[in-house]
């Protein structure tokens, strides 16, 4: 553990099939005017909306609704929400939904009282808020992003086709509390469930595939990956298995709540490639990651072969006896690909609507990170996209 870091996390979690019981007590801590943020309607179909409204009502809250937050929430939708929350004098934002709703609520929290343009300030210049931040609480309905316990927010500008995430440093942007009821995730379509599972897995990879030192964060990461692979195979066959779904939900939170980034430089290049695809196609986040992953990891393997060999042995159970590190590492990636195919993930970007003529624009909007095993240049990025077609 050779890196230096600071660690703290402000989010209080309530986990389990009875966790909504704690919402009332949490709401008592905040003002009367609540902005209730939700997505395209799933919470109305599965009854979560009614349960939440009853608790808000019993708590005497004055509620303004901001519904219709779409997957990959847009800047235009953010501007709409800012107006509603401002007029309502919102004291508190309650996010009920998946990562999109949670991310959107955090962006709203730092924008309502912001005097500058939030897109320019937070997503182009990556500045921290100087204005009052409205506290956010979250009732999570989809496991994947980790947004329930981090300070990240990803917003899409449809005009410029840019999808940009900002991980804020200010801990006040993290949800004050998150309610994690695995039962709420049971109504997710299979496509969304497995997309979330791959998002979780890739969050762990993004942090794991960096650095050379012996780091406790990597040992934790391996445990999380093994648990996720185990539970994902159960949930893939039987999505109603509570034990598997609860483990997946818990793993999602720990995969991206800053713990396993401690002491790591972290990679995040799969997310940059995936976000470029997402900005152009509006495809489902986890699928944009799965579609570029194999081409990316095969490309960087030679630069981090020792770590990829360790991944093969410790995560996928590959027997290294009599093999070179290169062979062991390659076998690990093949096992990973087999698992991804078994889950039914999207394995190429053509399926998400990308064609050869879009590769240049995709390359142009891809942000380049340098915390992984190889800092890519523009040609390599185009090549990885081409291999992912
Ligand atoms: O909108 P509704 O009707 O609620 O439907 C949603 C949506 O269509 C549906 N859904 C959610 N919970 C459901 C449900 N359907 C039935 N039953 C339920 N219980 O699922 C669809 C996808 O929801 P969404 O919130 O978009 O998914 P996810 O949680 O994967 O969030 C994706 C967003 O998070 C960002 C992504 O880029 C993307 O914009 N990310 C945020 C991160 C962070 N804050 O740290 C990191 C991630 O890497 C990611 O980039
Ligand atoms: Zn992600």
Tag the structure with descriptive keywords.
2 domains, alpha/beta, globular, six-stranded parallel β-sheet, single chain, 11% strand, binds 5,6-dihydroxy-NADP, Dehydroquinate synthase-like, alpha domain, two-stranded antiparallel sheet, 15 helices, 389 residues, 8 strands, binds zinc ion, Rossmann fold
Tally of DSSP helical segments: 15
CATH homologous superfamily (4th level) name of the largest domain: Dehydroquinate synthase-like - alpha domain
- Record the strand order, biggest sheet: 1-8-5-4-2-3
CATH class of the largest domain: Mainly Alpha
| CATH topology title of the largest domain | Dehydroquinate synthase-like, alpha domain
Contiguous uncertain segments of 5+ residues: none
Task: Give an overview of the whole structure.
The protein is of the alpha/beta class and 389 residues long. The protein folds into 2 domains: 12-185, 3-Layer(aba) Sandwich (Rossmann fold), CATH 3.40.50.1970; 190-387, Dehydroquinate synthase-like, alpha domain (Up-down Bundle). Helix content is 48%, strand content 11%. The protein is built from 15 helices and 8 strands. The chain has a 6-stranded parallel beta sheet, sandwiched between helices. Strands 6-7 form a two-stranded antiparallel sheet. The longest helix is centred in the middle third of the chain and has 22 residues, at 216-237. The mean pLDDT is 97. Zinc ion is lined by residues 145, 199, 203, 271, 285. 5,6-dihydroxy-NADP (NZQ) binds next to helix 2, helix 5, strand 6 and helix 7.
